[in-house]
Amino acid sequence: MSDFLHQAITVDTYTLVVVALLSGWGGVLTMQVLSRTMLAVIFVPGLVFGALTANYLFNAYHFYPTPDREVNVVIACTLGLIAALLVLLVSLRLMAIVSTLFLQNYAFKSDMAQAASPYGRQIRRV
Fold first, then answer.
1. What is the pLDDT of residue 79?
2. Contact status, residue 81 vs residue 47, Cβ threshold 8 Å
3. Which of 31, 62, 80, 91 could pair with 51 in a Cys bridge, judged by C-beta atoms 3.0 to 4.6 Å apart?
4. pTM
5. DSSP-derived 3-state class of residue 126
6. Do the beta carbons of residue 121 and residue 114 sit within 8 Å?
7. Using CA atoms, how far apart are residues 74 and 21, in angstroms rounded to an integer?
8. Which pLDDT score is estimated for 4?
9. Coil, helix or strand for 117?
10. Residue 49 CB: number of other CB atoms within 10 A?
11. Of all residues in the chain, what percent are helix, strand and coil, respectively (each to 5)?
């Protein structure tokens, strides 16, 4: 873990520029597709983390698809960005499902409490 943090903090300028550009465009596309600015703001750090993690893993396991270092950085960051986007979208979908189930359960309990009241909806709960 400390090796990852050290390499993530001491990335070269080229890698930093590639990560910033890809994450920025990923945030803009997320904002356009989901029509929510706040989700794009939340997604961008996740995209940066995914790109830096993939770059670290490519270097740690000496996986170099091409002999050119710059192309390898772009490939690693792009694949990390895609993986992070998939993880973020799946987690977003799971949170939506859980919140829907929670709200349905809460609405059911609230309706049952109001139905049990002799005055129906006239009594307000504090």
1. 97
2. yes
3. 80
4. 0.76
5. coil
6. yes
7. 11
8. 79
9. coil
10. 18
11. 85, 0, 15
